[in-house]
TrEMBL record:
This is AEC family transporter. Its main location: membrane. It is a multi-pass membrane protein. It comes from the Bacteria. One of its GO terms (cellular component) is plasma membrane. InterPro entries: Mem_transp_PIN-like, Na+/solute_symporter_sf. The keyword Cytoplasm does not apply. One of its GO terms (biological process) is transmembrane transport. The chain crosses the membrane at residues 12-33, 45-64, 70-89, 101-120, 132-153, 173-194, 200-217, 229-251, 257-277, 286-309. Keywords: Cell membrane, Membrane, Transmembrane, Transmembrane helix, Transport. Belongs to the auxin efflux carrier (TC 2.A.69) family. Coiled coil: none annotated. It holds the Pfam family Mem_trans.
Amino acid sequence: MEPFLETFSFALSVTAPIFLTLLIGYGLARVGLLSESFVDDASKLVFLVTLPALLFFNIFGSDARLGDEWPLLLAGLIGTVLTVPLAWLAARPFEFGDRSAFIQGAFRGNLGIIGLAWAANAYGPHGLAQAAMLMAVITIFYNIAAVALFAVYSQKAKFSWVKLGKDIARNPLILAIVAALIAKAIGLKLPAMLVQTGDYLASVTLPLALLCIGASLDLSMLKRSSFGAFAASGFKLLIVPLVLLAFGFLFQLDGQAMAILFLLAASPTASASFIMARALGGNSQLAANIIAISTLLSIVTASLGLALLKVTLS
């Protein structure tokens, strides 16, 4: 029992600070210290400037290399691809108008903020660099899956593969990761003042982004939560990590890579699923409920899962 308590304490040290920062953001928004306009502007700043800086300088400065991480990337990609048809099957019993929100909520995780924050807390810059590369691969697939959902469920809009390619090519997070990998491959040397500036920008990313996510949570939605919201949240927090971990064992990942794979898989539903549900003409309230429920429950599932994983692998 003692080894599990020790590992659970470690897992809680990874997840609890992130969760508490979300709660602080939620509280500050409720008392009016974080306005909606500030949250909108700060979220854009994170997405366009500080998070790309975080990804670039952490990958560029770490000893993680793309050629060494292909088993992790392949396990994450194959596992994620498999979760989409599984989520589609799980959504079949629900009304047609609810399925797009269910599927998005069931497989699309908040990798860019919560997943990265967990990885950084657990394993520092090297873990963050591993998580960033995995995030890039999975995010590209998320965009492809979104187009497939539009094709099946949307009555409002049509998406093309050309637009998808442009969206991926313009994604600042993917561009930052690719640029960092290229810079490492060619042995680029950056001036110390530029690296220091990048570190300044990177250092504000996760706290600011977590405060914004917390401020955007609408816990009043929980009063109107349905079975579908809990089912999709359960799929996201339990089934998705199990599927990805199965491929992690298949590819014989080491302990740290397995933990990184789990932490990204166990991240709660991304807010992008709410945007997609509205665009698809689906049940946006269901999507909002899934985000709120999965975010609150992830502190429990991620902590317990990480502790069990470390005990299993030790």
